[in-house]
Specification:
The complex is a heterodimer of chains A (about 300) and B (about 325). Chain A has about 300 residues and is α/β, with parallel strands linked by helices. Chain A contains 14 helices and eight strands. In chain A, about 50% of the residues lie in helices and about 10% in strands. The longest helix of chain A has 17 residues, at about 55-70. Chain B has 16 helices and seven strands. The chains are: A alpha/beta (about 300), B alpha+beta (about 325).
């Protein structure tokens, strides 16, 4: 773990998923991480700009990396899987090709943006607290163990695959979320589709295909006895939480499965309150699980 | 070395399924395919699987080990034996099982044929041969590495949900022709990949990139086809419209305009039908005020950047140094030089 990071919340945590930004800032303080805001950051373009306008995607991300560098930070911390893959992919491309970096910098200069020398590393919050001194620090701050709470880890795709661009852990047998759940004093439940897709990227354009994907982890996590699910990605969260009602109707099953952001799980174990972690901003009521956490305390 | 593995068996005559454990002695260099050969030779001759070249070229021996699709001939057993785990060998996913580890590839080939995996010829082909420059070849080299083994299809999450999705192998082949400078398929070709079950079905789970034993990166190939469709101005599919909102958003506010996503992707009427859902989200505070969108600082920089890159992209397309192909007349002119 670093003592300070250029902090990139991305769009969702800045807009509809504000509880993620609030919880992240709250746990960072407890962990002793300084989060330095990037004043002029924009959207990373998600998979959409990346697909439709690859050149524009590359420049958008180079601009963000350049801004992080300008702040004197060597590590940019993300809290979203899609932002993580987008920024890391652009970063690796720029770092590996000096001619490309030079061309991109010429363009950045022309519009008055900070240039980028290639000196920033992109890391997700999950990775910072799942091993090494970050993990030790997590265990220290987890003063309110979530005893008896069963949590289903849901990784999502773009923090595992493709591993040549992400590479933190075995993409088929990840353990980082399980380690964190255990450090928080809760019990991790296992189920096969924890590494599969939540369907979010196509939830509007191909809703039936997406719902078919979304139902699978919800069914399996419920069958495994989960009180709640935790995910490191706000897009997975939106899919699993906001679209859960639609998945429920489609599958003709009641799920009522609360979905936690990673930072909320850590925050709850670190003694932060229900209000501080803004559990109220969820679509699926978190009560059964949060009652276990807060009434057990 | 002593190798133990479990194999998922299926007998189509009795429709019986079982998980059988086999142990054989192998040398340290043995692959999964060598091990299956030993099981078939020494233990149970009725075991069925496909194989041919034994060197990761023919694409016959795709199967799953502990749920992950691999080429059996490219999978060394030593690390697995040393880990102490007993792996489970099963047939590939997303394809019907014929017997044991043999799947029916007919649906796979049907999708291949559906993408027209061949050159659409020019009306006036060159008198001699087509001369393709190295940098033009480079645009399709990655996709040309595909050996049609089906490992990507096996784990495609969208195909599990929509079995008619063209899928990563067929769409990677599509990219190989979309970006071939000799191809004249044009918008008609792109239209094949643009409708239901086409590129916009891809959920970006990246299992295909993870599994491909040849480094084809099928998801990246699908994105290349998506880019060709998008940049050809074909924005009728909700998938393309979704992308358009993102591009527009970054220009307008620097952030995603979340409230524009639904109506501009699915259309106003469908958005109205979904009002109860939107209200549910609004109650949780998940609908940002559309009249006062959150805006990035230094927005001017992003807008200028967008315009600058757009102009560069258009120039590169006109020159034929980027995108699917050179304009035919220019290709001909270059050819006759």
């Amino acid at each position: 773990m670093k003592s300070s990071y250029a902090y990139y919340p991305g769009c969702l945590a800045s807009l509809s998923q504000k509880e993620l930004d609030t919880s992240t800032r709250a746990i960072a303080e407890k962990l002793g991480m300084t989060l330095v805001d990037i004043p002029g950051f924009t959207c990373c373009g998600a998979g959409d700009v990346h697909e439709a306008r690859p050149e524009y995607y590359l420049h958008l991300n180079a601009r963000i990396l350049g801004q992080a560098e300008q702040l004197g930070q060597d590590t940019l911390m993300t809290i979203c899987n899609v932002c993580t893959l987008n920024l890391r992919q652009a970063n690796k491309k720029l770092q590996a090709d000096p001619d490309l970096l030079e061309r991109v910098n010429r363009n950045l200069k022309e519009v008055g943006a900070a240039s980028y020398s290639g000196g920033v590393e992109v890391r997700h919050l999950l990775w910072e607290i799942a091993e090494g001194d970050g993990y030790e620090r997590l265990k220290e701050i987890a003063q309110r163990p979530l005893v008896g709470v069963k949590i289903a880890p849901f990784y999502g795709c773009q923090i595992l695959r493709p591993s040549r661009l992400l590479g933190f852990e075995d993409p088929d047998r990840p353990q980082s979320l399980e380690r964190i759940i255990e450090a928080c004093g809760a019990e991790a439940v296992d189920y096969p589709s924890k590494i599969k897709c939540c369907g979010f990227p196509i939830v509007l354009a191909r809703s039936e295909v997406a719902l078919g994907e979304l139902i699978q982890p919800l069914v399996e996590a419920k069958e495994a006895g989960a009180d709640a699910m935790v995910t490191p990605c706000p897009l997975c969260h939106l899919s699993l939480d906001a679209w859960q009602g639609k998945a429920s109707r489609e599958a003709d099953m009641e799920f009522n499965l609360p979905i936690f952001h990673l930072a909320q799980l850590v925050g709850a174990a670190a003694g932060l309150s229900y209000d501080e972690l803004q559990f109220k901003r969820h679509v699926v009521r978190t009560y059964p699980a949060t009652d276990k956490i807060y009434q057990g305390a | 070395m002593h190798v133990t593995l479990k194999i998922q068996r299926y007998n189509p005559e009795t429709e019986e399924q079982s998980l059988e454990t086999y142990s054989v002695e192998m040398n340290e260099e043995a692959t999964l395919l060598d091990t299956l050969d030993a099981v078939k030779d020494q233990v149970d001759g009725s075991l069925s699987y496909r194989k041919s070249c034994r060197m990761a070229v023919c694409g016959s021996c795709g199967m799953r080990i502990d749920g992950a699709a691999v080429l059996a001939c490219k999978t060394p057993m030593k690390p697995i034996v040393e880990s102490g785990e007993v792996p489970v060998i099963s047939p590939m996913g997303n394809l019907p099982v014929i017997k044991d580890l043999v799947v029916d590839m007919a649906p796979f080939w049907a999708k291949f044929r559906a993408v027209k995996p061949y050159l659409e010829e020019d009306e006036n082909p060159p008198v001699k041969e087509w001369r393709v420059q190295q940098e033009e070849l480079d645009r399709v080299m990655t996709e040309a590495l595909c050996i049609q083994c089906g490992c990507c299809v096996s784990e495609c999450n969208s195909m599990e949900s929509d079995p008619d999705f063209l899928g990563p192998a067929a769409l990677a082949k599509a990219a190989r022709f979309v970006y071939d400078v000799r191809d004249r398929g044009g918008k008609e070709r792109l239209e094949l990949y643009n409708g239901p079950h086409g590129v916009w079905d891809c959920t970006r789970c990246y299992f295909c990139n993870q599994r491909c034993p040849k480094g084809v990166h099928p998801r990246d190939a699908i994105a290349k086809v998506g880019a060709a469709i998008y940049q050809a101005g074909m924005h009728s599919d909700p998938g393309a419209r979704h992308a358009k909102v993102f591009v527009k958003s970054t220009h307008k506010t620097g952030y995603l305009l979340e409230t524009n996503l639904v109506p501009e992707t699915v259309g106003a009427i469908n958005a109205i039908k979904d009002i109860p859902f939107a209200l549910k989200l609004a109650r949780a505070g998940k609908v940002p005020n559309p009249l006062r969108p959150h805006s990035a600082n230094k927005l001017d920089e992003v807008r200028k950047l967008h315009k600058l890159i757009e102009a560069q992209e258009q120039a590169a397309y006109a020159e034929g140094t980027a995108g699917p192909r050179r304009p035919p007349e220019e290709a001909q002119a270059k050819e006759s030089e």
